[in-house]
Amino acid sequence: MPVAMAMVAALLLDAVLGEPRRMHPLVAFGRVADWIEKRLHRDRRLAGALAWSLAVWPPVALAAWLSMVLAAASPWLDFAFNAAVLYLVVGLQSLGAHALPVARALENDELDHARAAVGRMVSRDTAALDEGQVAAAATESVLENGNDAVFGALFWFAVLGAPGAVLYRLANTLDAMWGYRTAHYERFGWAAARIDDVLNYLPARLTAVTYAVWGHVAQALHCWRTQAPAWDSPNAGPVMAAGAGALGVTLGGAAPYHGVWEDRPVLGTGTPPDAGAIRRAVRLVRRGVATWLAVAVLLGWLWRGGLHA
Fold this sequence. Notes:
Family: Belongs to the CobD/CbiB family.
Pathway: Cofactor biosynthesis; adenosylcobalamin biosynthesis
Protein name: Cobalamin biosynthesis protein CobD
Keywords: Cell membrane, Cobalamin biosynthesis, Membrane, Transmembrane, Transmembrane helix
Low-confidence stretches: none
Function: Converts cobyric acid to cobinamide by the addition of aminopropanol on the F carboxylic group.
């Protein structure tokens, strides 16, 4: 029950406060990771693994130590610490804050503003996107980051508490920084990409199930089964295919990166996404979070009742 209540408290803080505007720990972590990369970068997997370890394990160990010290001092201090840590690593409110301006700009026929807004969400070249491609990019980002910034953090918090949430979010951040298949990162970023794959394996599939439950169930499961294997990421594939099927839209396809249009498999089925699809994707994530919280509270209540039986 304390774990479930900490999850509820963290998401309430996220809803009320949003992301910290100054001195966000993940921003500070990114700067530290950049500093480590500049000194340790070599075209070797071992160098990348060492850099990953130096960046991630110290803050995870600090979170574990603080959790133990505070738990010994007071259960309320431990509760407050766990809720605060999860609040800092979860990004539910941020998801809507980034995606909904894209939807509003498209609804107001402000394509340039929509391109600028979606450019803050994705790494592709947005200047060349038309309205449908802007909507697709935003929808894809919401679905994928629903797992990376929300459900994955909730899963590892439920499993390992504050240290687990910190481990997951930092690993995910390093994957976003180093996990590229380019000449510069192919070997150095190998550890970051593989570790993120391992940590995301279960959360991604639970996220896909969650999307299916709150959308077109049979369609989502069919898209997951038939389309996800073709996607280049073993975890993003199930999440985005199930999400696209749940929403009844078509995602994927060609997208521009660094001036080159890359062909990607088609995900989902139905109509091309529009502003409404972006809004429905945000609602899909929010309903999924509400479901996870309800399940966590129920399991905590049953566990507590079992202990007192």
